[in-house]
Amino acid sequence: MSVTTKATIASFGGKLLKLSHAATSTKCEMSFNLYLPPQAFQNPSQKIPVLLYLSGLTCTADNCSEKGFFQHGASKKGIAVLYPDTSPRGLNIPGEDEAWDFGTGAGFYIDATKAPYNNGYNMYTYITEELPKTVFQAFPQLDSSRVSITGHSMGGHGALTLFLRNPGKYKSVSAFAPISNPVNCAWGQKAFGGYFGEEQVEKWKEHDATELVRKWKGPLDVLIDVGTGDNFYKQGQLLPENFEKAAKEAGVEGVRVRYQPDYDHSYYTMATFSDDHVEHAAKYLFA
Amino acid sequence: MSVTTKATIASFGGKLLKLSHAATSTKCEMSFNLYLPPQAFQNPSQKIPVLLYLSGLTCTADNCSEKGFFQHGASKKGIAVLYPDTSPRGLNIPGEDEAWDFGTGAGFYIDATKAPYNNGYNMYTYITEELPKTVFQAFPQLDSSRVSITGHSMGGHGALTLFLRNPGKYKSVSAFAPISNPVNCAWGQKAFGGYFGEEQVEKWKEHDATELVRKWKGPLDVLIDVGTGDNFYKQGQLLPENFEKAAKEAGVEGVRVRYQPDYDHSYYTMATFSDDHVEHAAKYLFA
Q: What is the pLDDT of residues A139-192, one digit of tens each?
């Protein structure tokens, strides 16, 4: 459970910590970043809520820390930002490094059930259980009862599915360009086929936001930004319209998908709108 | 003089353009980025002022475009940001790719006089003459009479020296962690020795901000941010204290060096304070 500090970087009045720990669920040393806002250093008795940001395919904890500018909004609101990695690293599973959209950097926030990936590709358990347990033990100034979740692309899929599968666990959810209906897109089919097996259709649906929202009870205040210039959106990898439609059919109110004119799939889009997503989380974290 | 558009990226309500052109002064195709704020697309009769940002060693136009967060402030103020490259590329001068602090990526914003670098390493002429001429011809909505300058590290040296050598050319100047006294630091001595020759002491001084500020007439409202956790500052590569001392001795008022506690030499520092530097430029661009 011990955490190694690899770097401490001043950022927007707070500190960005580059950390790692030996993870049991993923059977390897996992790197992650944690942004502590200035408020975390001001009043020791004030507990700091956490925004969990899940990254997309190929990313590490560093990409969004450098380019997403969540620290800008989080520093003003007094929110810590937790940036995990996107998969186990270095498990030496044959083939895990062959594709950019499967294996290393592409854990898809599920627990794999198919060999050989069932031996360590457990990002669902890692993100929902082991990482928070580790972080809240190492940083007692953080408030484990106030956590919101967001993410980009594969991480948007992660944010939506982790939220929908665990009612009450997260105070709020938002997403950038989420893979919203993985069972119906090439990325999701490749990932779920490889991690669960081709025939495990019910298992696939358990990790599909569009399937999960059909069963949601009550309102769902989710903020989603998708750029109309996003090539992956145009290629049908994201399918936010399926998510919207499913929510509507199920009578779930509060799904706000903003189609941002010309914006693409890059961090330039996230940088532009991250303040809005921090604001969305803050509404619930400080409710 | 024609400009090639390689990409158009939506960012903070405006557009970041990735561009290139065949440059005469540097004898090669030069890439640069230009951020057009939302105001550039709103009122065709409204001329947009420009903030010229000069990058540091090893960087291209992309680093600060992605990580510096200048678009955040510039989009609010209605300022275009011009991000040039840091040297000629691909001239095939023997040795130009051997070091990260000399040759490619390290043009130092001077015109080299020593062979073989005098054949193309003319970043001073490129930045002060050819690039603006090209940009203002290609983008008539930009206001060539309102340009401010800033930069980081080697680019901070560029910003200070270009401003001090050309009174009236730029409306304002600021810098992050500038190489403030290159004749007295290892980076500067290597660069000036290689580009001008070891014996050309007077030439060296013509491109040294600390030497130039001694001759400045009148006030000088310059904003400089240096992190106290900056390893290059601690190693004596930046020497902002020499610049401050020289200005004081010469009776030049208005030099504001902010020593930012714990901040390092990275883009995390720039992202934190870029809004302040945009604000500083805006005060003069909209005076």
A: 999 999 999 999 999 999 999 999 999 999 999 999 999 999 999 999 999 999
CA distance A227 to chain B (A): 9
Disruptive mutation site among A230, A266, A269, A276 for chain B (greatest number of B CBs within 10 Å): A266
Q: Give bridge partners of residue B20 from the DSSP assignment.
A: B4, B31
Q: How many Cβ pairs closer than 8 A exist between chain A and B?
A: 60
On whether the pTM is more than 0.95, the answer is yes
Give per-residue pLDDT as tens, B93-144: 999 999 999 999 999 999 999 999 999 999 999 999 999 999 999 999 999 9
Percentage of chain A with pLDDT > 70?
100
Phi, psi of B9 (to 5 degrees): -125, 125
- For B3-286, the fitting CATH number among 3.40.50.1820, 1.20.1110.10, 3.90.870.10, 3.40.50.720 is 3.40.50.1820
The complex's ipTM?
0.95
